[in-house]
Write a structure and sequence with these properties.
The chain is built from eight helices and eight strands. Strand 6, helix 5 and strand 7 form a beta-alpha-beta unit. It has one domain: TIM Barrel, CATH 3.20.20. The chain is an alpha/beta fold. The N and C termini lie close together (about 5 Å). Pathway: Carbohydrate degradation.
Length: about 220
Amino acid sequence: MALISPSVLAADFLHLAKDIELVNQSQADWFHLDIMDGVFVPNISYGMPVMKSIQSLAQKPLDVHLMIIEPERYFEEFQKLGAEYLTIHAEASTHLHRSIQVIKSLGMKAGVALNPHTPISAVEEVIQDIELLLIMSVNPGFGGQKFIENTYSKIEKAKDLIIQKNASTLIEIDGGVNVENASKLIACGADALVAGSAVFANENPTQVISDLKNAH
């Protein structure tokens, strides 16, 4: 049974408290928070004040995905804002190993995200140091994009690496995840699924979360 992490970016920001409460009451495991800077990705999402509001209401762990350049500038801030998982992009961090160690030293679980074009080999040297490997199954920046089919083989490669290195890293998939492809993602080795539009654009978000949670 996969961990389900609804993406708050797809929620209704005029009624954010309502959507957070919906996730609190659902079978979801985490809240997925996308922080974008408009530089690393061609979009700007939300920042510290909004995350602080989310933290004040969320009753589940915050799974924070930084799509920003020089993410190490903000590690301490995100720790204060309650991030349980802090994921940075391999492509955005010049000193990836050092950044991972700093995240862990602050008491958070460290994650590394890979863009669709970045091979699994990019995390070969750090896979034992991270708790989460986030595989982007769309190009980061905008919600509602079409799922990239090559993701399935990428998950299998990641799983092979984790087993080979005797690591306990969780594999998380982000982008175009829905009830239709959840079972195949899990079969390939995914441990956690991020779902945004599939959840919040549906008239029955709680049911979608339940369907994703029970996919196998």
